């Protein structure tokens, strides 16, 4: 029989109402709380769109993977082709006589958004930019980025060069979590290779220096794509990742990015709903030395919840298990789950485990159970 029990300890928890939906000006958007792995906002996030320079993050991922594999080092020098030198748009002002190091190219891509630097990396790692773009697409598929197709290394406008904002968010999350040794480059604001770069060639991330905890990742802009940003920020132990695209100006991008960051941090709060090991319910035990066993969460149950005024309904919680549960039972054995019904959010399901061991009952217990079954038959005849 399916048992649904709610222990009184959970009833006493003060729970928060849902945050008001955020109406973004961006054509598409994706906002993610990395700390709790919670998607806070999606707007056309799985639609493949022109990513502009935001797709340079995939070029960096390929370079970081090459560094991790030992194929290149930070001191490895790459040659500069005429094709690379001739790239228009954002540049780190390379020429054919230069031999930039991998470390300098990372700075040139992150800070200067150098299209020339991207071509240098592509040709240095794969021989040609076309081959490199194919490898980028193949690698994206293995990483779960199913709505990404690359035609070049820089995000230069090209037919079929597309990424969804969800894919860009997954990529940003990967760069943050898998390559922490390289992530500090995304917070750097200035780089001037050989003294050639003008002031406006530096990092265009509008959130850096605003005191909102921003430390990455990459802007993008073309006429087709509009103004976009893959951003990340950390406050009070929480990190968010967000992607916006299709804004109409640098000013609108800056305002929307800051507003989204403030919304994500101010409208949601981390709340510990139950401490690990706290008994939340009891399950009936069949043929055990004890009649019941406590149901607990193994670790502290901490959730990201909307942080507006208290609602009347709050959050509904149920402890669900199939019982009675036959002995023997081992402490820590998964016996059921705690189901939390969150307003305007998907249900959260957390395993419930046995609080203690419950061995099989002795002869007296067996006899008692048998007698009880017999009396039930007699009374029912």
N-to-C order of helices and strands: EHEEHHHHHHEEEHEEEEEEEEH
Give the rounded overall mean pLDDT.
89
CATH architecture of the largest domain, by name, is: 3-Layer(aba) Sandwich
* N-to-C span: 24 Å
Return the CATH topology of the largest domain: Beta-lactamase
- How can the largest sheet be summarized? 7 strands, mixed
Strand order of the largest sheet: 1-11-13-14-9-8-12
Number of strands: 14
Broad structural category: alpha+beta
Q: How would the blueprint of this fold be written?
A:
Blueprint: E1 2-5, H1 8-11, E2 28-33, E3 38-43, H2 56-69, H3 82-85, H4 102-110, H5 115-126, H6 129-142, H7 165-178, E4 214-222, E5 226-235, E6 238-247, H8 250-266, E7 268-274, E8 279-286, E9 292-296, E10 301-306, E11 316-322, E12 325-326, E13 334-341, E14 348-354, H9 363-380
Parallel strand pairs: 8-12
Antiparallel strand pairs: 1-11, 2-3, 2-6, 4-5, 5-6, 7-10, 8-9, 9-14, 11-13, 13-14
Helix pairs in contact: 2-4, 2-5, 4-5, 5-6
Primary descriptors:
Beta-lactamase, seven-stranded mixed β-sheet, Peptidoglycan synthesis regulatory factor (PBP3), Domain 2, 14 strands, alpha+beta, five-stranded antiparallel β-sheet, about 25% strand, about 375 residues
Verbal overview:
It contains 9 helices and 14 strands. With 381 residues, it is an alpha+beta fold. The chain has 2 domains: 2-15 and 274-365, Sandwich (Peptidoglycan synthesis regulatory factor (PBP3), Domain 2); 28-266, DD-peptidase/beta-lactamase superfamily (Beta-lactamase). The strands form 3 sheets. Strands 1-11-13-14-9-8-12 form a 7-stranded mixed β-sheet. It is elongated and about 95 Å long. Mean pLDDT is 89; it is low at 1-19.
């Amino acid at each position: 029989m399916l048992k649904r029990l709610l222990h009184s300890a959970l009833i006493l928890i003060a729970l928060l109402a849902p945050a008001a939906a955020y109406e973004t000006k961006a054509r598409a958007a994706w906002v993610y709380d990395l700390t709790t792995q919670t998607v806070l906002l999606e707007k056309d996030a799985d639609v493949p769109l022109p990513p502009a320079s935001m797709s340079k993050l995939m070029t960096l991922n390929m370079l970081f993977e090459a560094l991790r594999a030992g194929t290149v080092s930070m001191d490895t020098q790459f040659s500069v082709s005429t094709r690379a030198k001739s790239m228009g748009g954002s540049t780190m002002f390379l020429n054919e006589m230069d031999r930039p190091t991998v470390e300098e190219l990372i700075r040139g891509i992150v800070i200067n958004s150098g299209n020339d630097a991207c071509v240098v990396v592509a040709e240095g790692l794969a021989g040609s930019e076309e081959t490199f773009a194919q490898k980028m697409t193949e690698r994206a598929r293995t990483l779960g980025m199913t709505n990404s197709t690359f035609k070049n290394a820089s995000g230069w406008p090209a037919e079929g060069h597309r990424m969804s904002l969800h894919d860009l968010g997954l990529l940003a999350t990967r760069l943050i979590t898998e390559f922490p040794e390289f992530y500090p480059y995304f917070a750097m604001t200035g780089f001037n290779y050989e003294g050639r770069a003008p002031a406006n060639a530096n990092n265009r991330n509008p959130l850096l220096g605003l005191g909102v905890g921003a430390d990455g990742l990459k802007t993008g802009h073309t006429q087709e794509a509009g103004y976009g940003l893959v951003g990340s920020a950390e406050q009070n132990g929480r990190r968010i990742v967000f992607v916006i695209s299709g804004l109409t100006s640098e000013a609108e991008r800056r305002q929307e990015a800051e507003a989204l960051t403030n919304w994500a941090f101010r409208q949601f709060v981390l709340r510990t709903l139950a401490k690990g090991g706290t008994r939340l319910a009891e399950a009936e035990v069949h043929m055990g030395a004890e009649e019941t066993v406590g149901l607990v969460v193994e670790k502290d149950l901490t959730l990201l919840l909307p942080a507006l005024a208290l609602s009347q309904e709050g959050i509904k919680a149920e402890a669900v298990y199939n019982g009675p549960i036959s002995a023997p039972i081992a402490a820590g054995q998964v016996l059921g789950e705690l189901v939390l019904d969150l307003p305007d959010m998907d249900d959260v399901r957390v395993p419930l485990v046995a609080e203690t061991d419950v061995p099989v009952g002795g002869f007296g217990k067996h006899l008692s159970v048998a007698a009880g079954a017999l009396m039930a038959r007699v009374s029912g005849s």
